[in-house]
Specification:
- The chain starts with 6 loop residues before the first strand and ends in a 9-residue tail after the last strand.
- Helix content is 0%, strand content 55%.
- The protein is globular.
- By secondary structure, the chain is mainly β.
- The model has no long low-confidence stretch (mean pLDDT 91).
């Protein structure tokens, strides 16, 4: 069984609305989830980012953005899944 594989993705055009192109996403196993690195192009210009995807047992998944650099701007923050939320399409 592969518990936490090292993953490298190259996404040609993952989100046209943001102009994302040639996005590289590297996920490396770490305790509690994956360290992540991303780089690519967007409508605002080239971007780079680092952070982590944390998957604690019995708790919501957390995407932590340590730094996102794009067009001379730095951003950081986090996104947390909400198991109680529903998506009505």
């Amino acid at each position: 069984m592969i518990d936490h594989p090292k993953i490298g993705l190259l996404l040609d055009r993952p989100l046209d609305a943001l102009g994302l192109a040639t996005v590289r996403l590297d996920l490396d196993p770490m305790p509690g989830g994956f360290a992540m690195r991303a780089a690519g192009g967007s409508t605002l210009g080239d971007f780079t980012g680092t952070g982590a995807i944390l998957t604690p047992p019995g708790r919501p998944t957390l995407i932590r953005v340590d730094v996102l650099n794009v067009s001379g701007t730095k951003a950081s923050g986090q996104l947390q899944s909400d198991p109680a939320a529903s998506l009505d399409i």
